[in-house]
Amino acid sequence: MRTCSCGDLAEDGRDRCVRCSALQALELHPTATDEQIKGAHRLLVKVWHPDRFQGDPMLKRAADEKLKAINAAYVFLASNPFRRPSRPPQPSSGFQPVPAPTPPRRPAKRRFLARLLPSPVTLLKWAVLTCGLVLGVLFLKAADSYLAAQPVTGRIYSELRDDLEARFRQGAGSILSQTGMRLRSLLPPKVLALPALASSSADAEKPETAAHFGHLNPTQNLHRRELGAARAEPARLMPYITIGLTEDEVKAIQGAPTSSSGEKLAYGGSELYFTGGKLSGWRIDPASAPIRVKLWPDSPVNPDLAFFHLGSSKSAVVVVQGTPTFLSENQFGYGGSIVYFRDDRVVNWKDDRSTIPLRVAP
Asked: What pTM does this model have?
């Protein structure tokens, strides 16, 4: 018994099965579909119809036989629809293909975590980006400290940096104010009138609220009266003593000194120094005479500065450390700590952490 190429048994004395022989009669491939079989039958009937060969009797008989074979093949294929072969064709060499192993399926939980978590490549990209950002920040900090500490570039770099920070803050403030104005313009008038209504209702309820104070105990009533008196008569604050005041102005603020000379006024352990009739420095002793001295920056400085460094201006030191307890032309003293200046720029310091530590940039 022979086997057809499709896997079925062949007819006796032939190399093909009945179906493949019928498909060969229609000039079709063994894998032809039903639509292809119908189309091939219609085409071959038109080609081999005997009426086309009326002038030649031999061709007419041959066409008639061919047409019978075509019709018989079509009838067989129509009555036996397409089906898969019972077994795959065996190659002549006898080689048996080994099926590919099916990969094991991962559990449903692991598949869910694999979809939820990013891939290793994505994690590696984020790690590289984070390391790059950290290294960039550290490099910028190191460059900032180096440029600010150099005697040649310190002053110019500090001024440029402070100017850029001031411009940035000014621009950010203007953007925020414009955003607030735009939001306010979008709100309806009824919403804008709510604060005014709330304040007027609060004022209207004040007498009624005051009438309930009688239910409190006498100590609470006394405390209420004392608070009201303090609000009615605020405490009088003495003005600050600062650079540039005359001797008479200082005496008018602080009163008569314990001792006086041409260039110095003493109040207990505190001393005020004058140059050319104007206050130019001081040494304050908070224990014996806590004089209210104040020193303001004389140039624009970022108010959020946290440290000063070599090359910083006097204004930057004032913003960071505050008003010094000892002030001269080239020195600021804070307790036992001293900051030294040359041409209004920091050149050195002495840090006494037992009294007032200096906030110097690391």
From this structure: 0.37
- Low-confidence residues of the chain: pLDDT under 70: 1, 7-14, 81-101, 103-115, 152, 181, 184-238
Predicted pLDDT at 343 = 92
CB proximity list for 73: less than 8 A, separation 6 or greater: 21, 22, 23, 25, 26
pLDDT at 114: 66
Q: How many Å apart are CA 347 and CA 330, to the nearest integer?
A: 10
How far apart (Å, rounded) are the C-alpha atoms in residues 339 and 343? 13
